[in-house]
Amino acid sequence: MPVRARRLPSYALFAALLSAAGLPVYIHAPKFYVDEYGVSLAALGAVLFGLRLLDVVQDPLLGGLSERMRRHRGAAVAIGAFVMAAAMLGLFAVPPPILPIAWFGIMLTLVFSGFSFLTICFYAQGVSKADSLPGRGHLALARWRETGALLGVCVASVAPVGLGVVMGAPFAGYATGFAVLALASVLAMSGEWRDAGLPPSTGFATILRDPVARQLLLIALFNAAPVAVTSTLFLFYVEIALEAAGWEGPLLLLFFLSAAGAAPCWGLLAERFGGRRVLLAAMALGIVAFGGALFLGPGDVAVFAVICIASGAVLGADLTLLPAMFATRMARVSPSAAEGFGLWSFVSKFTLAFAAIALLPLLEGAGLRTGDASSPPQATRLLIIFYAGVPCALKLIAIGLLSRMNAIEDISWKQ
Hints:
By secondary structure, the chain is an all-alpha fold. The protein has helices spanning 8-20, 23-37, 41-68, 73-92, 100-131, 137-166, 170-188, 203-209, 211-241, 248-273, 275-290, 301-333, 338-365, 377-403. The model is unreliable at 1-5 and 409-415 (pLDDT under 50).
């Protein structure tokens, strides 16, 4: 491995940390607070939506903070990781000392604030790192980074289920393991947070004036929304629509392992055939694969497992190719990249607000119930439509936007 590429495994480990604090929290935390503390779905949806409103202001500001702390980014990252790990312990390992919904909101605010700041720093540092690599630097870094992220999601998604077999407090064990991972990741990346001597920040206006950057951000919005919807509703779909309680962990593992295995393959295909063309093909395959979930019912676990494998493989393309395209564009229009990824982080997380505020209250209003309580047929059918139908419709919008963007072929990778 070339000298400049030897630290790429450290980027994979740090990406695993960030991914463990992203989708798995949306998968596990709402249901954990419903089952353990009896918090209503509507209340959880309102809190999650409020957190995303906070991100409207916070993420761009965190991008500016990351830019101003470029010379001291290592220390800032260590503080951010500590805050995120402590809040994760508070969320899952500490019984709420106040009203559970209030504690849920406070801990998630700290988790997501740390997550946002670290994500912005990490992807911004990746732009300068990729420019120092030989050949297609952004794609090489993306393969390591996104494969590490997907492996992190795999472990984080199933860890509470696996820990539940060996210990009485699986989520406390999960939070403790996350804190250990945070320490290891910060140590592994300790030599990477250096100022690469990039030009000063160009500000948000320069990024938003660039038509290609604007289009990529809009595509990211509609392309991330399906993942937000499915991750928010996955546990409910398996338990209620499939009546397959206990299969959540294995199915999640299948999904994310398929994504992790496919991510490097999508990168290689993009090098040969072009990023836009390959990503469009992957999006279309995603609709075909995932649309089948609309027609499943109780006992269809085997068929859903096949859907998880196919749709997980497509997710590998989404998470690898689009961030690499955006990073390459940032290298041209805003080389420091911190503010650009502040906008990217906001766009990605805004989709989770849509899932929380638009879907959870509607499902509760339709009579959806978890645990031993039964749900009326209309509530179950609405859950299936939200889980499988809404993501396919959103993906169609993303395909339409990307298909009109011919200029993207010119900015796919560093040649």
